[in-house]
Amino acid sequence: MSNEQAEELTPEDPRTGHVDQGEDAGQTDGVATYIASAFDQSASRGGRPGATAVVDNETTKVVAFEFAAGDELKEHAARHPVLIQVLRGRVDFTLPDRTVELVPGSLLHLTPMLRHAVRATEPTTLTVTMLLPR
C-alpha cells in the first residue's frame, strides 16, 4: 500500500492486528488446530454440565460444556478473560448487574475475575474460550 493509499486503523477496526493479504502475508510454519465438532464432548452430570477441554495450549484453552435443561454452574469467576459462545440451546447468564439470555450466535466477553452464574433453560452446548497470557 503506498503512502497515498495508506489509511489509519482505529483500535475498533477489525483489521487492526492483521497483516496484508498476498505472498508476503504471514508465515507457513505455524500450527492449526481443527476440532471437527465441539458437540457431545461430555454429558450432563445430574444438575451440573459436563465439560471437556477441546483446545489446550500455551495461549488458549477452549472448554466445551454440555448442559441438560436446568443444569447450573453456581456463581464463580475465571482467572483469565473469557469468551462465551452458545452453539445450540439457550442459557440464562447471570452477571453482577443483570441476567442476559445467550442463544446461538451470541458472544459474551468477560474480564478476569468477574463473578457470574449460568443456568440452561434447554439442552445446550456452549464453549468457553480462555485467553491465556503469553
Structure description:
This protein has 134 residues and is mainly β. Helices cover 0% and strands 39% of the residues. It contains no helices and nine strands. The protein has strands at 50-56, 60-67, 72-76, 82-88, 91-94, 99-102, 107-110, 116-120, 124-131. The strands form two sheets. It has a five-stranded antiparallel sheet, with no helix packed on it. Strands 3-8-5-6 form a four-stranded antiparallel sheet, with no helix packed on it. The chain is globular and about 50 Å long. 15% of the residues are buried. Mean pLDDT is 85; it is low at 1-5.
Count of extended strands: 9
Cα-to-Cα separation, first versus last residue: 31 Å
Q: Strands of the largest sheet, in order across it? A: 1-2-9-4-7
Give the H and E element order: EEEEEEEEE
Helical residue percent? under 10%
Structural class: mainly beta
Number of helices: 0
Beta-strand residue percentage: 35-45%
Mean pLDDT: 85
Uncertain residue segments = 1-5
Rg over CA atoms: 18 Å
Largest sheet: 5 strands, antiparallel
Bulk shape: globular
